[in-house]
Write a structure and sequence with these properties.
five-stranded mixed β-sheet; 16% strand; alpha/beta; 45% helix; disordered N terminus; four-stranded mixed β-sheet
Amino acid sequence: MNQVVEQPTASAGRRARGGGGAARRAERTAVKFEFARYIERNIPNLEILNEEALAIIEANAETVLEEIGVNFVDNPAALDRWREAGADVQGERVRFPKGLARELCKTAPSSFVQHARNPERNVTIGGKNLVLAPVYGPPFVRDIHGGRRYATLTDFRNFVKLGQMSKWVHHSGGTVCEPTDVAVNKRHLDMLFSHMTLSDKPYMGSVTERSRCVDSVEMSKILFGDDFVDQNTVMTSLVNINSPLTFDPIMMDALEVYAAANQACIISPFIVGGAMAPVSVAGTLTQVLAEVMVGVAYSQLIRKGAPVIFGAFVTSIDMNSGAPTFGTPEAAQITLGAGQLARRMGLPYRSAGSFNGSKLPDAQAAYETANTLNIGLLSGVNFMLHACGWLEGGLVASYEKYVMDADQLGVLHRLAAGVDMSENGQAMDALREVGPGGHFLGCAHTQSNFKEAFWKTNLLDYKPFETWEEEGGRDTSSIAAKRVEKMLGEYQAPAIDPGINEALAEYVAKKKAAEPDAFM
């Protein structure tokens, strides 16, 4: 069900004080923001692997962990934890008796609520739900006016505003782009402050260094309160595994901080098939499962019951150039298979997104994105990072692509709702009324249902050719650019307690003043 939130503009608010007529005019001209609740699937998942195939992959993953093992690099404390848990530790290599990692994973919850500062924006991650979050991590941005350039803090704030304004996007995300005009050791503070004040949707924490994770927790305590953060999940953050089979200390620092604080982590192998995993689907799924099991198990050694998500970021590789490829059938098979493995472990699942390798928001970008988004829906993904804005293999966050993708996320909502088999959905009254040779445009059923009968785009152009030509013959990117301008022009910051806002600003200012800038 969609919730419509109406927020009058400042000028409308001033007019409203003029009396009843002014108030009615203000209501008609008020900017209306619609926010869709996270998706609850009423359609089945597509299962590509049979029971025998799943059992083989699970057995092979256990063999990998027992015979080959994984490396925990520069992390003696982790090695001690594994040794105490019953693993075989030789140097930095950890090998696991069969069943040990999977057994430890059993205390991880099958679903959890991530709280937003506006409780109406809370999301439940797991089960049949799908939460959509924007692109994460690009150092560059692109728009129709300035082309491709390094991202700035202004760009970052703009993307947070677009996320707040986008009906079908449920989550503000994390590093929507890297604000390269801010020092590396301080930009996380500005990014978190932007998410916390410019949006009231859920957000992600920093993972690039232990102290930055601690800052994320401390700022969340200012926003939500110490006890609330300790007992509830208010962040979902990304922990990538350095595939193949390597757990680096930076990512493990993040996992340790967040798990100890009861905050969720996505345990996600970073797979480019043929480079970081075998070229075969079954071989890649075996590696993905082995790596995820170890990461999830380690989170439970830190704090039993800490929320985690089974992640699978998977692309293939172009064997001629070595470049990653997106929207391919092999990646789709891995995404579908990993979803089955995640459900068998009883864990929420993260995968898919608006993945594409195109340099522009063009036909290639659209084809590859559509392939990946739809497979994500069908594979049972619960948390979809990169759902909008991704361009050029993840190097670029595109303004136009963001709103193009965000519009198409509405299609996922409608598909996931399934087929209405109520009396109204069966439309027998319409069939009886119209009969042979008639038309349905004027019948009672159409008149009572036409507003909500079909999904409606807020972006794509369905005008007649003559009208389209008179309006300048704009392509989708040009239309999207205008949509970006409109959304940013109409943006209104969600209300926040002034005392909390001041405390957050003071924390950021104090932390930034405490050390010199570092750009490496």
